[in-house]
Amino acid sequence: MKNKGGILALLITFVLISGYYLIRTWKVNQIRKEASAFALGKDGNVDTAKKQRYLDSLWKQDVFLGSSLEDLTKQELGLGLDLQGGMHVILEVSPTEIVRTLAAGSRDPRIGQAIAKAKELSVTSSSNFVDLFVGEYKKLAPDVKLASVFSTTSNRDVLNLTSSDAEVIRYIKSEVDGAFDRSFRVIQTRVDKFGVANPNLSRIPGTNRIQVELPGIDNPERVRKLLSGAAKLQFCEVFSIQEIGPSLDAFYGVLNKIEIEEKLAKGLSSANKKDTTSSALASALKSTSDSSKTDSLNRSNSLTNMLIMGQNGEMNIRTKDTVRFNGLLRRPDVQNLFPANLSFMYDVSPVVNETTKEEFVAIYPVKDAGNAPLEGDVITNAKQDYDPTTGKPDVSMQMNALGARKWKALTGANVGRRIAILLDNYVYSAPNVNGEIAGGNSSISGGFSIEQATDLANVLKAGKLPAPTNIIEEAVVGASVGSEALNAGVISSLVGLLAVLLFVLIYYSQAGWIANAALLVNLILLLGVMASFGATMTLPGIAGLVLSVGMSVDANVLIYERVKEELAAGKSFITAIAEGFRNAMPSIIDSNVTTLITGIILFIFGTGLVKGFATTLLIGIFTSLFCAVFVSRLIFDYFIKKGKTVNFKTAWTEKLFNDSNIDFIKKRKVFYSISAIIIIAGAISIGVKGFGLGVDFKGGRTYVARFEKTVKTEDVRAAVEKAFAGAAVEVKTFGGFDQVKITSAFKIENTEPEVEETIKTDLNAALSSIPGNKGTVMSSSKVGPTIANDTIWSSLKAILYSILLTFLYIYIRFRSVAFGFGAVMALLHDVLVILGIFSLLNGLLPFSLDIDQAFVGAVLTLMGYSMNDTVVVFDRIREYLSEKGAKKEPIETTINNALNSTLSRTAVTGVATLLVLLILLVFGGETIRGFIFCMFLGVIVGTYSSLFIAAPIVVDAMQRRLESEGDALKVAPAVDKK
């Protein structure tokens, strides 16, 4: 191998970097454990507020090799909601109200009719809502120009009565997109204020949807209200420091008193522990009293130093002190100090002190925040502009007539003072008023950057266009359920890994140690890369991790089987190693590229758990390829340099598959018939019995409930149907006879946040009504009909794209339609067989066989595995067809020889992968059991189709081509080995 030194240096670098990121992950978890221990109460429960305060205190501090806690959490291998509990929500920004508001000046009743019809169609259509609305409105009013409906005084700089329909449509779409951006920013601010560790907020590309993940949330009702509540925009007066000066002095006095009391309590505690005399206690009291006389503003650890006065009289506070400050403000003796209409409001954007690295946030003493003199509904337009005097960015805004009158009065009464602009009780700007503003047109300047001015304009426009957000998908996982899933995942990972290592060792003897070393390095690199990307480990991700380790055996197997062939041909150990690696490379590359295609499609079209699996699979492809090719070769070269050889066989594997001479092709019609029978039986079952559709595909709510002892599903169904007003309810045993999964579409169209809690309360009451066996909801999920329809379409597109891309790759790689046709037919065969088996076995097995998004992910994965297997077989067939002797024998003989030569590789890879999947099926947990069962079947079916379907179809296709060309001998055509 060339450039061994460079490859070794690269390997060491990769391992060190991976180890560094894994240590960072370990450090973050250690800090979280310390925070939990710090906040542990006498009752054994963790005070979440106290824990968060501990974490906040370290958020900007150097905690590990120059990195703050914030830096560490951005690049850690975190746990998904299914492993630690929490809440997952997908919000949809409703365009219906935006369009309705834009057309509010029109009295045409057809506008409302078109909006209603477009909303109805959007559930089952993938078209843009605006296009649907315009299409429906044009049906009702074909001769009406859209400009006559949507052109108003507030948008006259964009539209007028002569504007074309195309211009109006562009304007409406831009406003809808702008409303989505504003909603995203508002929700982002709300999520950041939840105080949870590692909240995740992302836009779903190509949609007006926002995905939110909040680990550790234990109050779903609060989350629903905050995420889907309408944005509240207010303009409020701000108290000056002079006005509240006496109140602040009194507040500092209270803080001094509290500090003395705390030190006294600490001194008493210390005295009790040490059994000291009263004189020692008196000394502690004197020290406390003396310290209270010092300048409180200069003592960084003092309560009275929480509020830091700026040069212009503004107040600031360390972000880590905000929780304590809020608690102090709730004290009765503090509340009485300040005016009744005063509320302390935080700035939305904290700043970091570059010297101390501490984070500070400004505080504003706002007047009448609960009853603002002016609210956002009066804003008609706002945009980022430039101050004509200074040329710096500012924000211009326009108000309606009512707003103009109120704004004139408000600014006239506050010349020289601040007016705070609040959204959801956070201050986005607090500009000084330079003079009374009449007419409703004004500009806000304050040294903004262009980005800051744009953000403020978006905030002001949020008052103009209400863009309500509806929760269309939701999942709540209890902490105990997450803990159980984590334990199941860890156990399955360890057992699966050990099983693969042991199997490889038994089969390949000394060479097995080298393969295992490469596998362990692969595991370190895989976890390290995931940590560096800040990836989240989910239960399917763990399955993908273990499976990628199992499938990475394949590259080693391809190399080892080639080396064994070279050794059997009488070549030296050095030559056999070099030839084995060289000859295995085409198959290794082809098999990894086909798996890569599947992984990319899974990543693009998958969401949630499926995307977690795809992430692990994609990273695993690259790390396993690197380790199998380079790490293994470096170890072999080390032995060669030492003049040693390595044994590739054990006593019982030495002659295994050596003399295999199975006639795969001769009996191909028998195998075609067997497959046809299974597919037809499955089709009949699908037509008669159908599938068990998961909530992903049909919409509805799902609850997992656990009972004190074994429960009958009929009893649960009878109790739940009463609570759900007779709506259809499906109840299945889930993970044990004391646990059930309850699915229903009851009130699924209702998006009000309160409905979810009401349904859950009624459900818990129903579960508690079962005599002698109380049940409790452990986790829940909800999928609206719109996203269920989208999931179906995205799943179908994923499967079709996978088949198409696979055909194109095979055709380009093998330069033969016969190979591409055989590969595609084998993939269709695998999908149809799996679908049929799932329908036939639905309801007969003790775990769920629902067709959902996880099932689609499993189908795509097994398609990748099947293609991986098929392409290795095809590579060997191509190699045999390219040999000179192939022209002298029939195609059947040539391809049979090729299939028999790959049998050992097919068997070893299949057994290793099935071994991992079997362990995951047993230990992996109920959440992914159906997913793993589908893959388990898929490996069997995929291996079968590679040998008995794909290759025979290639033979039939080639023979038909030769017959059409008049070649009666039907001998193998020459194939380009390249």
UniProtKB/TrEMBL annotation:
Domain Protein translocase subunit SecDF P1: 181-238
UniProt main location, coarse: membrane
Residues annotated as domain Protein export membrane protein SecD/SecF C-terminal: 469-639, 776-957
Keyword Lipid biosynthesis assigned: no
Pfam families cross-referenced by the UniProt entry: Sec_GG (PF07549), SecD_1st (PF21760), SecD_SecF_C (PF02355), SecDF_P1_head (PF22599)
Keyword vocabulary terms for this entry: Cell membrane, Membrane, Protein transport, Translocation, Transmembrane, Transmembrane helix, Transport
InterPro entries on file: SecD (IPR005791), SecD/SecF_arch_bac (IPR022813), SecD/SecF_bac (IPR022645), SecD/SecF_CS (IPR022646), SecD_1st (IPR048631), SecD_SecF_C (IPR048634), SecD_SecF_C_bact (IPR055344), SecDF_P1_head (IPR054384)
SecDF P1 head subdomain domain span: 371-467
UniProt-annotated location(s): Cell membrane
Regions that span the bilayer: 6-23, 485-507, 513-533, 592-610, 616-636, 670-688, 792-812, 819-841, 906-924, 930-955
Membrane topology per record: Multi-pass membrane protein
Plastid recorded as keyword: no
Subunit structure: Forms a complex with SecF. Part of the essential Sec protein translocation apparatus which comprises SecA, SecYEG and auxiliary proteins SecDF. Other proteins may also be involved.
Function: Part of the Sec protein translocase complex. Interacts with the SecYEG preprotein conducting channel. SecDF uses the proton motive force (PMF) to complete protein translocation after the ATP-dependent function of SecA.
Family according to the record: Belongs to the SecD/SecF family. SecD subfamily. Belongs to the SecD/SecF family. SecF subfamily.
Designated name of the protein: Multifunctional fusion protein
The organism of origin for this protein: Lacihabitans lacunae
Gene name of the record: secDF
